[in-house]
Each structure stands twice: as C-alpha cells, then as structure tokens.
Prior knowledge:
The complex is a heterodimer.
Chain A: H1 32-41, H2 44-67, H3 102-137, H4 139-154, H5 157-168, H6 172-199, H7 202-209, H8 214-222, H9 227-250, H10 262-269, H11 277-304
Chain B: E1 8-21, E2 24-37, E3 41-45, H1 52-60, E4 67-72, E5 75-76, H2 83-92, E6 93-96, H3 110-121, H4 127-140, H5 157-169, E7 175-179, H6 187-204, E8 207-212, H7 215-221, E9 224-229, E10 232-238, H8 239-244, H9 249-256, H10 263-268, E11 287-292, E12 295-299, H11 301-323
Parallel strand pairs in B: 3-8, 3-9, 6-7, 7-8
Antiparallel strand pairs in B: 1-2, 1-4, 4-5, 9-10, 10-12, 11-12
Helix pairs in contact in B: 3-4, 3-5, 5-6
Amino acid sequence: MSEEKLINEDSFTFYKVDDSVSEVISAPEYSYWKSVFKTFFSSKIAIIMLIIVAAVLLMSFIHPMISGYDNQDMSNINNPSEWFLRPSLKHPFGTDDVGRDLFDMVWAGARTSLFIAIMATVITTVIGTIVGMFWGFSKKVDIVMIEVYNIISNIPFTLIVMIISFTLKAGIWQLIFALSCTSWISTAYFIRVQVMIIRDREYNLASRTLGSSTTKIIFHNILPYLISVLVTSISRDVPHFISYEVFLSFIGVGLTERVASLGRIVQTNAKYMQSAPYMFVLPVFVTALISISLYIVGQTLADASDPRNHMI
Amino acid sequence: MTETNREVLLDVKNLEVTFTNNRKKFRAVKDVSFQIYKGETFALVGESGSGKTTIGRAIIGLNETSDGDIIYKGKKINCKLSKEESKEMTRNIQMIFQDPAASLNERATISYCIAEGLDNYKLYKDETERQQKIDAALESVGLLPEHKSRYPHEFSGGQRQRVGVARAMVMEPEFIVADEPISALDVSIRAQVLNLMNKFKIERGLTYLFIAHDLSVVRYFSDRIAVINKGRIVEIAPTEDLFAYPLHPYTRSLLQSVPMPDPRIEKNKELIVYDESKRDLSGEKPKLREIVKDHYVFMNDREKAEYEVQLQKMIEERKQLKVG
C-alpha cells in the first residue's frame, strides 16, 4: 500500500480553452426558399390543389392549340343533329345551341380568362408594389397619393371598367387595361401600410447609419419582409380578376362574341339552365375549380413564405 | 488628472431637439452643451425618457435638431451637408444599437449585415479583400467565419450584439455612439461585450458616447459622465469625482438609487427622492457652470454658494475617513 499518489504541480498540464467551440451553431444551415418549399409541401391539400392548378393551366394553354377552337366557327349551325348533345365520349361536355363542342369552348374560354386575370394581377402587383414602397417611405408622396387614393377608391370600380370598355371598345387588352388601371392603387395602399409598419424599425435606422440609400433599404430591408404579404395579395387577386371577368362578361361589358371566355359561356348558357343544365353547370364548375385551387395554393404559399412558420 | 488642451472631437452647443405631434410641440432636449475629447468614453446617464437616446440620434443625424450646433472636428454637422461630407460623417460616426434582436435585418445573412457598410462605401478593392474584411471583423468579435451564411435569428443575444459591434467596426469609424449597448443583454454576457468595446477603444483609439442608465456599468466603462434629467444636463464630471462628490440633488438621488449588496445598509438607507417642485428655485435662471476644474453643475449664484459649502464638507469627510 505504499503506492501513494502524489499530487504536485507536475500532475497538471495547462489546457488552452478554445472559446470558439462555444460559438459553433450545431443547427443545420437555414435556407429561406428551401424552408418555404418544405413548409408548402407538408400540406396535403396544397399538393392536391397544386396538381389541379397545373392541370388547369396546362389544359387551358395547350388544349386550345390542339383543338384549334374558333368561337366564330359555327359550321354546325344548320345541323340540328349536333345541337344540345349531352356529354358523351365524343363531346365530354356536350355541345351548345349551335353545335359547338363545349369542352373545347370551356378550355379556350379558360385560357382567355386566365390570361386576363394573370396579366391584370402582374400589372397591378408590379405598379402597386413600386408605388406603395415610395408612398410608404416618403411623407411628401403620401400627401399627394392619399388624396388620389381617396378620389379613385370612391368611384365605383364597375363604373370605371364599364366606361373604359365602352370608350376603348371590347377586347382582351382593353379589358386588361380596364381591370388594372385603377386597381393597382388598392395594392399600393396595402403595401404603403405594410411599409409604414416596418419602416421605422431599428434595423432600418441601422442601415441608414451604415450609409445605405433608400432604394437599397427598400430592396434589402423592406421587400423581403413583404414576400408573404405580396403572395397573399397575388393569391387573392387572380381569382378575383377571374370572377370579375366572368361578372363583366355576364353583364355584357367585357368581351365580344369573337373570343370565348368563361364569363361569356356562363352568360350565354344561363338561359338553358333548366332545359340543358350541363351547358351551364360544367363551365361554372370549371370556373370555380380554377378560382378555388389558385386561391388555396396561393394562401398556402403565403403561409409558407412567412419565416415564422418555418421554426416548427 | 486631466491634461489641458486635449483635442475636442465632438462639441455640442446649446442643442435643442423638438418633436412635433399634431402641432403640439415637445422639447425633448433643452439647451444641452458638452464636449467629448478624442479617445475618451463619455457617458450620458439618466432615467428613461430623459432624452439620452435623442441626443445620440441627433449626433448621428437620425433626429433633426431645432436649435444649437453639433460640431464634429470643427465642422458643424447638424445642418444641410454636401453629399460627400454627409457620407464621410456617416462613415466616421457609427452607432451600436440597444436591442440586438431588432437592429439586425432578419432576412439577410450575417455576411450581408456586416458587409452592408463596406458595400456602401466600397471599402475594398476586390471580392477577396471584401471576404477577408468580413472574416477579420467576425474574428475580432469572437465569431467564426462559418457564421457568414447564417441568419440573425439563429444567434444568441450576445452573439447578435457582437455582430452589431462588428458591423460598426468594419467601417473603421473614429467616433461611436453606443446607445445602451448592453441593457438588452443577459448579465452573464454584458462584460463580454463591454470588454470587446474596450479592446477596440484601445486598439483603434476610438471615442465613445456611451448612453446608459446602469450606473455600475458606467462607472466601470467611462472616463467622464454627464447626468441628464428631463432633457437637460444637470451635472458633468470625471467619473470618480461624480461618484465621490455628487452635487446636484438629482445626481445624488440617482447615485443613491443603486442598491447596495448589504441588507443592513439597504434597510437604513435614507432615500432622497428628487422632486423639482419641492426645490428652492429662487434666484436667476440656472446655467451649467464649472464649480471646480472639470466639474460642471447646472446652477445659479445662490445654488453655487450652497454647493461650494457642500463640496467642502464632503472633502472634509473623505479626509477624515482616510485618516480614520
């Protein structure tokens, strides 16, 4: 038992503490867009709706090219055996009162309606966002713009669209112009409010003291915070413009007989609601399918693009 | 204890900041004058709402001044400056913010946050030098280069505040306004950030305007202290003088509010509550005047006489304590 352990200075060695070890972040690297897609695809309904949106978009942009549908082609107008055919294999949606194939007609109409809605949304969002940014940032712009907003938002939208459609004559581009010419201001107002909320946050002051210009602050500090807000606004606008086009064509302001549109189909077929219900129900169903699927996809994407939903 | 003819870096003269809200005017800062010498840490102490932050922001140009001058290196900076001049000023005077959770852009990587100033001023020749500068800035505050691609929300409060410090330091400024840089931090990491700031002060000869309400921190960190009450400076003195011989009643009440880690002293402490309405305010309008060298108090002639008596008494007491 003589093996006594002696503790003296030699038993100790200096150990250098590495501070940097405590600084390491072990969590996996965060990537904004990766998290957006991960959150988006975690919702089953969103995936189903996305498939529907893709199918609808493909159908409405490819099918009219294959079918070569022409709304003015009424070759069967004197052939009553082709009128009012119920849905069958040859005519999945049946035929209408002058013997046109309703399936071809609906997809050609969907193309027109979607094109109008998407173009109007793009124009509205781009102009609205740019104007809204500077509107929210500058007090001088605010004084002028708030008056413009008050005037425009107090004129009924339908009235503006009707006057423009009448003066510029009916047509796709005229309708796009009519739809987007005043509606950008509500997007701009919406963005203005959002900008005002985050404009005076401390990190923007910090950017100022680092010498960043207003443009740089807008694009790097404000815009990234508004992605989810913008996606929400877009996902609301597309279905809104589709239903508006339908509504306008339905009251007879929108497009002429030359092009097919969902609104026109619903309008002209409404009178056969009882005698040949498929002629009215099927186009309405397709319209609803487009609106709902786009809206749900947009809303899920908006939620997914908000980083607060990434931490779960 | 102070050298004469030290270089004045920042000279604030009769500064006034007014906020207007629905035509109602509120003077947040009234007739504030002080000088900050090159290489020192000047602290601004006062309760919340006293106008400390407003002064700091006025210096950096975030708040507009309604009267008075802010003179930096002999040049007035609170007026309309030419583009180059204001750019130069922005680079020279940097700020460390109070809340590290709010002062970093959550949607940008750490690399972007730190390089923001570098990019604005093109303080590098090429991309390699830019990366080197970012790496060096991260390393100087004890962070790792691998943090560059991370986002602010992944960091702890102390780490974020160090990013805030690194972001200011990368601009190679001369003067830093530190607006309560540690009040939002955990007690355990306050010293870390303070030591970091001290390290930069020594290494780079920086000058700080340190805004705080925590007197113990101020005592540890600063060379001179200005006590501010309701937008007005009531006393300026070198740190030890202020703690040894506080003259203005507000300063005395502020110093006394620091809790003592001894329950016996704490229980028997006679609290001085500062109440301006109960003070004798007779005599002419008070001004910030020097009572002994480098020690300024907001007073008039009558008060000056009182303070001089008080000061003598305090000096006597000190002497007796030392003898005893």
